[in-house]
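Exercise 7. Predict the joint structure of the components listed below.
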Amino acid sequence: MLQTRLAPADSILPLTLTGAVAKVYGKTIAGPIDLQVTGHGTTIVLGPNGSGKTTLLRLMHGLQRVRKGSVTWALPDTQARLRQSYVFQSPIMMRRRVADSIAYPLILRGMPRKQARAKAIEWAQEFGLGAALDRPAPVLSGGEKQKLSLARALISGPDILFLDEPCANLDGRATREIETLLARAQAGGTRIVMSTHDMGQARRLASEVVFMLGGKVHETGPAQDFFNGPKTPQAVAFINGDIVE
Amino acid sequence: MNWKSCLLALAASFTLALPVFAKDIKLAVTTSFHNSGLSDVLLPAIKEDLDLTVKLLVVGTGQALRLGQAGDVDAILVHSRQAEEAFLAAGYGTHRREIMYNDFVLIGPKDDPAGIQHAANATEALQKIAQSKQKFVSRGDDSGTHKKERALWKAADLADVSGQSWYRAAGAGMGATLNTASGMNAYVMADRASWLNFGNKGDLALLFAGDPVLFNQYAFIPVNPELHPHVKTALVEKLENWLTGAHAEQLISSYKINGELLFTFNAKP
Amino acid sequence: MKCWGFCRMNEITQGLYEAARLIFSLDSDLLEIVGLSLRVTLTAVVIASAIGLPLGAWLVINRFRFRRATIAVMNALMGLPPVVVGLLVYMLLSRSGPFGVLDLLFTPTAMIIAQVIIILPLIASISHQTIRDLWAEYHDLLISLGASRRQRIMALLWDGRRALLTAMLAGFGRGIGEVGAIMIVGGNIDHSTRVLTTAISLETGKGNFAFAMGLGFVLIGLAVAVNLLIHTLSRTERASVW
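Solution:
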């Protein structure tokens, strides 16, 4: 098993959202949201399309500006920025070779190029990309691209990893590979926050669930409680596969 | 990536500084002088006799005078007496030294529709062009040649030709103006040297020449070192002495194109 | 002897012949002129790129008050007439101008300065457009990875290098074929500041159309050769994806 964490004793967690609101062109698209992400495990963000799952993840990661309220880490933002990662729903592939793409976050953090590349090659092999090291990243298959995204996100040893429906466009086999890699990252100590609308995947991975509806956190709690005894009628309907407005 | 290092190497090789030549001076000359080809004979001789590189700036008389005024050249060699005297009066030059003269000629369509071939003098020739309303292309660029042409029209009592439809001001150098005249099959006034060396004669021919008013005096004017202390006065003086000396006389007096003598050396020692 | 179109066709053919003769006889004057043309324009391209490429990228990733105005001015300057640039540089470098003491007028350095001013807006503008598209693609990723402003600019320039090469080649094309500015600030001095375009202008003035045309063909050949060389070195037209 690769060393995932750079093993800092201190962590940027907990992450605290207090009345956080996101707006686009003056219109509120999500919030106000109050939420805390602590400890270990995997938080799965559930909810129908347009419920604000992506916006929540982007708010937490700092890709979406907080218009009201606050999003705070245990450490100052500049430190927190380099100790969190994000995997996008449609992978963003830099116009570089696979190994160079995976090495990029290390180079950004000041690691010498040679050393970064050596480590990236090791990681690529671990992530099943060993045969594609020198291929341009943009020509990879969908599954390979998402594995590259995951390797790139984890190689810097983040305290927390956000994933926005990473398996939405993948087939069963690729999904299973991603899940295995995620389980290993979690075992290595990385906190995971992931949105999905694959209920099966949610049940397999979740230790905690955040159920979003209409841009707000509708219900939240330990995974077991949520799946076995949802408190709100909308959550019940969603788990049963009914249409939730 | 190897192409990057290649580019860098290429860039480095091109940005290296050029060695500075110690003994050189800048001389602004008119297009007509350069077009004569005489400079190709004189410059190597100057290099050999004086070990001096003369950098020629080939421009119109107007620009040559401006370059001298600004101190961007060390001396000028032009042919527009009035403008030269104004230049000296303003203190931009030290003195004016006549070197040689050639002459202006009237060019036109071979069949000469205006019939200037048998005109008694330049005045009559121009009047004939005006009367027959044949197309005439003027430099129109305030150059020495243009100034001379305007003076001739004025002498022929035709000062207002510029408003006429048959009178076309090209606003260009001698070569470009000859090209225009050749394209339009029009009359044009040119210095003999430019005409003889011109390679695009088309249907044009030399129709009128020889009137003494058409003589074209070239003069050498050193730029005033009091205004521009960086001017290489000593080298300019050497050049002036050479241009007015025996070797220059011999070269200028024997310079011919198609068997025709171009310049008459008339420098006073 | 009227010959209408035929004479001109004949001169173009003669031009080709002249070009071939000049090249195959390795005419020393021609080599000198070609060498200076390349030296001036390539140096200008390198300098203009060193400024223009980061400037284009910087304008993409930064938001400030006069950003739109800056971009509009930059785009407008692409069409700046070289003669105007030449005149401006002449007045600055003239002995009677503010930088006269440097004694740079009528030197290759003066020509390089003029060409940098002519090429810079073109390179900055094209690279700005190229990088704007790449930034739209990379924006979220680079922010997510915590890249600093400088690191963002470097990543955009490096990953956009093939498209940026096109910007540089466009700059080269504008520079190598330019005559208005270098005529004024260089002076077209034989064995000193004469380049292909000013030589062509000179020969045209003498009515030596065939010879001028020959030099023109050499110029075209040179531009094609430089483009091919750069494309070969960078493998631009062979790599399949970017």
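Discussion. Chain A has a mean pLDDT of 86.
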